[in-house]
Design a protein that fits this description.
The structure is a single chain. By secondary structure, the chain is α/β, with parallel strands linked by helices. The protein has 3 domains: 5-263, 2-Layer Sandwich (Aconitase, domain 3), CATH 3.30.499; 276-413, Aconitase, domain 3 (2-Layer Sandwich); 461-637, Aconitase, domain 4. The chain is built from 19 helices and 27 strands. A 7-stranded mixed beta barrel has the order 21-22-23-24-27-26-25. Helix 2 (36-48) crosses helix 3, helix 2 crosses helix 5 and helix 6 (171-182) packs parallel to helix 7. The chain is globular and about 70 Å long. The structure holds alpha-methylisocitric acid (MIC) and iron/sulfur cluster.
């Protein structure tokens, strides 16, 4: 068989299983990353596993989400993360060093390796020909403990890029086009492998495309490792990490998609889904209130130097607030050295830290009813912190030009130079602390660090439907982020007060009163972030099962890991027969077996329907034990 790159990497890391589409497989994980907002839970779970130090080739803990602390909570988290990293043999990247995906790309990603990260945009590393997968914190903790990662063998889709990008059209427009074609669930259980006319795309441009593959629901995305990769690694002063990794000629794929770059135009994703994509020309002239440039999608040197080229000798429109967040300290220093930083300051742009910033709602919530243009990857309802605002996702070129004009503007009609990679950069890892292997007693847990909750073993389910939801509910709906909520990521009881808050502010009180409950949802339930907190808070509030038309991959696994049953309707139309408040009984659930459907009896409507659990035997055992940690503890006791 002629092999794709994805197949080659999976094959060389296969621990068990058959590499046929949809079959359960396990792969060896070489490296991991965590970030602070998911990391505290991941390391508490790692501690519970009782190992001495991590068993991966390399693991890094980043602080990039909650950095501008108000109160002691984030600071407590940072100290815990620093000390636990030091105790277990994990590198610790301090706040301000950069966004995890950008720094990992610069300093650690190696072609041909596997990476598991507790952040859904971990596939950014696919730009360096890696199998890089986003997962819940517990899965990452297990990988750090040396256990293989379980997944279903994905379909491998070849995205062939044909032609040349025109002036003003960028990598962001390529991935927005793919999202327009395939939708936010078009990549579920797929790997997107990019080939064709890719030499014109630098590593940061490739990373933009792989990054937003997460919005397709894809397991991961990747590019070959070629001359462009070699140049990038040489610039990063690690040429020894380079290997060539190309697909075999006539490699076999499960599907092929073609994107014609010659015809591609600047694109924009309208509120409130990343696949709600049209050409920028359709919205040309729409007045803009706020523009945010940055995030792990578009904050590289080339992105921000191109922004500076557009802003040169111009000033930001009086009605627009423009912020720029830098991908990393390295990017910021390179912009300073090249003079671009001076241009950005002179234009009136507001410069933020090298962190996620407004992307995760840490500040810069737009004004009521605002139009906010962002170079980010997600525009889910309420994510910005202002429910009435409309978030439009665009390229840095579209964002920068619109910042000057004050209206949505088409960069293919403006004159400017696209920046290329710098000739040289300063490599400075002084903000990455190496582990000192301190004793476990020196791990500092301030009062904000609370133990994580665990579920009781599976028992009969006879509960009220506490919420009935539509399609494409994201983890930002389930467990919102934002500056006032994020400080409680290490305190599930407190965090759960905000569970489903943007959807129904009465949910928390109703769930507490009911003690147990069921959630009913449409397609693609749980898309978006890998935040395990969306499963942990729901579990903490007594939700025993989620019945949905379909699930997003990471969230479904997080539910299973935490003992909550994810059930899929056999006939999607049964969804219509259920009302919020109905009482459902999942018959004989404690005797759940592999490959057998379950029957749900609706006591309120007096009807019955069938649901599928699609669980492996291992997952059934996990659900019966009340989650993976309970199961592991039980095994350790034997
Ligand atoms: C996001 O972009 O939604 C986040 C914040 O980076 C999340 C992780 C989190 O919720 O902590 C993600 O993408 O997984
Ligand atoms: Fe951070 Fe935004 Fe990237 Fe998530 S998507 S890692 S919040 S920059």
């Amino acid at each position: 068989m002629k092999k794709s790159i994805a197949r080659k990497i999976i094959e060389s890391h296969l621990v068990s299983g058959e590499m046929t589409c949809g079959s359960p497989i396990q792969i060896k994980i070489d490296t991991t990353l965590t970030q602070d907002a998911t990391g505290t839970m991941a390391y508490l779970q790692l501690e519970a596993l009782g190992i001495n130090r991590v068993k991966t080739m390399h693991s890094v803990s980043y602080v990039d989400h909650n950095t501008l602390q108000n109160g002691f909570m984030n600071a407590d988290d940072h100290k815990y993360l620093q000390t636990v990293a030091s105790a277990y043999g994990v590198d610790y990247s301090k706040a301000g060093n950069g966004i995890c995906h950008q720094v990992n790309l610069e300093r650690f990603d190696i072609p041909g390796q596997t990476l598991l990260g507790s952040d859904s945009h971990t596939p950014t590393a696919g730009a360096m020909a890696m199998i890089a997968i986003g997962a819940g914190g517990l899965d990452v903790a297990l990988a750090m403990a040396g256990m293989p990662y379980s997944l279903k063998m994905p379909k491998i889709i070849n995205v062939q890029l044909k032609g040349t990008l025109h002036h003003g059209v960028s990598a962001k427009d390529i991935i927005l086009k793919v999202l327009q074609k395939l939708s936010v669930k078009g990549g579920v259980e797929c790997i997107m492998e990019y080939t064709g006319d890719i030499k014109q795309l630098s590593i940061p441009e490739r990373s933009t495309i792989c990054n937003m593959g997460a919005e397709l629901g894809a397991t991961t995305s990747l590019f070959p490792s070629d001359e462009v990769t070699k140049e990038f690694l040489t610039l990063q002063k690690r040429p020894e990490d380079y290997i060539e990794l190309l697909p075999d000629e006539d490699a076999e794929y499960d599907d092929i998609i073609e994107i014609n770059l010659d015809q591609l135009k600047p694109m924009v994703a309208k509120p409130h889904q990343p696949d709600n994509v049209v050409e920028v020309s359709e919205l040309k002239g729409m007045k803009v209130d706020q523009i945010c440039i940055g995030s792990c999608t578009n904050s590289s040197f080339t992105d921000l130097a191109t922004v500076a080229n557009i802003l040169k000798d111009k000033t930001v429109h009086p009605d627009v607030s423009l912020t720029i967040s830098f991908g990393s300290k390295q990017v910021l220093r390179a912009l300073a050295a090249s003079g671009h930083l001076e241009t950005l300051i002179a234009s009136g742009a507001r410069l933020l830290e090298s962190t996620c910033g407004p992307c995760i709602g840490m500040g810069q919530s737009p004004k009521t009813d605002a139009v906010s243009l962002r170079t980010f990857n997600r525009n889910f309802f309420g994510r910005s912190g202002t429910s009435s605002a409309g978030i439009y996702l665009v390229s840095p070129e579209t964002a920068a030009l619109s910042a000057i004009t004050g209206v949505i503007s088409d960069p293919s009609e403006a004159e400017f130079t696209k920046a290329s990679m710098p000739e040289s950069i300063v490599v400075d890892d002084s903000m990455i602390l190496k582990p000192e292997f301190i004793s476990k007693q020196q791990i500092i847990k301030g009062p904000n660090i609370k133990p994580f909750p665990v579920k009781r073993p599976l028992s009969d389910i006879h509960d009220e439907v506490l919420l009935k939801l539509e399609d494409n509910i994201s983890t930002d709906h389930i467990m919102p982020a934002g500056a006032s909520i994020l400080p409680y990521r290490s305190n599930i009881e407190k965090l759960s007060e905000f569970c489903f808050h943007v959807v129904d502010p009465t949910f928390h009180a109703r769930a507490l009163a009911a003690k147990n409950g069921i959630i009913v949802a449409g397609e693609n339930y749980g898309q978006g972030s890998s935040r395990e907190h969306a499963a942990l808070t729901v579990m903490h509030l007594g939700i025993e099962a989620v019945l949905a038309k379909s699930f997003a991959r990471i969230h479904r696994q997080n539910l299973i890991n935490n003992g909550v049953l994810p059930l899929t309707f056999l006939h999607a139309e049964d969804y219509d027969s259920i009302q919020q408040g109905d009482i459902l009984e999942i018959k004989d659930v404690t005797n759940i077996t592999k490959d057998k459907c379950l029957t749900v009896y609706n006591h309120t409507q007096n009807n019955e329907f069938t649901v599928l659990h699609l669980l492996t035997q291992k997952e059934i055992n996990m659900i019966k034990d009340g989650g993976l940690l309970n199961q592991l503890k039980k095994q350790l006791q034997k």
